[in-house]
Amino acid sequence: MLSKIPIEIGKIKKADLDKEILRAAIIGELDAINLYEELANMTDSEDLKAVLLDVAQEEKTHVGEFQALLLRKDEEQVIELQKGKKEVEELTGTK
Hints:
Blueprint: H1 17-42, H2 46-73, H3 75-92
Helix pairs in contact: 1-2
Protein name: Rubrerythrin
Main location: other
GO molecular function: metal ion binding; oxidoreductase activity
């Protein structure tokens, strides 16, 4: 993980604190997804693989929950996500 968690709260403006918390939570969930999917790929046990992939899927839902809240609090993030989507569509010729 490249981000520093826990966040140094004293260095964050009060107005930005919730956004930083949400981003840290998203990073944690993405790390968990990667871990569970990597472990699932390593095991030969179908039972263990099934549980790991199920938990990874739940973490993806958590990313969506945190992202939904983040988008309510950060209008710039909404705009930049839309720009990113448009760039990918232009580069790949898809919509």
